[in-house]
From TrEMBL:
InterPro entries: KduI, KduI/IolB_isomerase, KduI_N, RmlC-like_jellyroll, RmlC_Cupin_sf. It comes from the Bacteria. The lineage of its organism: Bacteria, Bacillati, Bacillota, Bacilli, Lactobacillales. SUPFAM superfamilies: RmlC-like cupins. This is 4-deoxy-L-threo-5-hexosulose-uronate ketol-isomerase. Its EC number is 5.3.1.17. It comes from Enterococcus sulfureus ATCC 49903. The keyword Oxidoreductase does not apply.
Length: 280
């Protein structure tokens, strides 16, 4: 089974008078992983597609053609995958590879077959995927968290000590415009990306997960620097972040998140930092 929701773009002026419910309907994805189902969201912000693939008793394969005006899903797109669930397998044009938790994959434009399978239906793999339009085919690359030297940043006294694992990044593999990574906050840390920033040249989507307790929540900050708003995010929910919006968060405990970006470039440091005294 496959579902795909569509989310349209918004001007910063559009959200000025949005209610909490309206903000959640436009920018929060509450259901990412459903057993036996592919749950996708198509955002018109740089035309990113993201979501969860959760195979149980049989394999799952993303099927999009007429929706994108193409013959098959990756005819004109590239794809990033990170497994955050139980062990599974991914089959790419007939080649099958094991995918344990935290294994990732970059899959290039023109790949016709991508099948997702779980080893144990009672402990299914949870493949989080992000896809962006692509103009060139780059090689498919398997990426494990074990092979990545993380960027260690933040400090205990500012509650933002964390490790950033760059999966789809120029240091790891080539891509057209997609970037994707995995950030893990240390125990006792709650903030990510504060002081915050925007990047007018790229949009971003976040998946928040691996919460320390069932009642942990993350307050995701969004909006323009001079008119901030927030979304309360539960475990394994995702947020769309337009290029004009800040994107920062604070949790009631530590957590992890996957970030994915696409847009004009693949320069990870291309961001416009917002000074604390500019936030309102």
């Amino acid at each position: 089974m496959q579902n795909m929701d569509q989310r349209y773009t918004h001007s910063p002026k559009d959200i000025r008078h949005y209610s909490t419910q309206e903000l959640r309907e436009e920018f929060l994805v509450e259901h990412v992983f459903t057993p036996g189902t592919i749950q996708l969201t198509y955002t018109y912000n740089d035309r990113m597609i993201f979501g969860g693939v959760t195979p149980t008793d049989s394999h799952l394969e993303i099927s999009l053609s007429t929706e994108l005006g193409v013959e098959y899903f990756l005819e004109r797109r590239e794809l990033g995958v990170i497994n955050i669930g139980g062990p599974g397998q991914i089959t790419i044009d007939g080649v099958t590879e094991a995918m344990k938790k935290q294994d990732g994959y970059y899959i290039g434009k023109g790949t016709k077959e991508v099948r997702f399978t779980s080893d144990d239906p009672t402990d299914p793999a949870k493949f989080y995927i992000s896809s962006a339009p692509a103009h060139h085919r780059y090689p498919n690359v398997k990426i494990s968290i074990d092979t990545i030297t993380p960027l260690v940043t933040g400090e205990k006294n500012t509650l933002n000590e964390r490790k950033i694992y760059q999966y789809i990044h120029p240091n790891v593999c080539e891509s057209c415009q997609l970037q994707m990574g995995y950030t893990i906050l240390a125990t006792g840390s709650a903030w990510n990306t504060m002081p915050c920033h925007t990047h007018e040249r790229r949009m971003e989507a976040y998946l928040y997960f691996d919460y320390a307790t069932p009642d942990t929540r993350v307050f995701h900050m969004m909006g323009t620097p001079d008119e901030t708003k927030h979304l309360v995010v539960a475990n394994e929910q995702a947020v769309i972040s337009p290029s004009w919006s800040i994107h920062s968060g604070v949790g009631t405990s530590n957590y992890s998140f996957i970030w994915a970006m696409c847009g004009e470039n693949i320069t990870y440091t291309d961001m416009d930092v917002v000074a604390m005294d500019e936030l309102k």
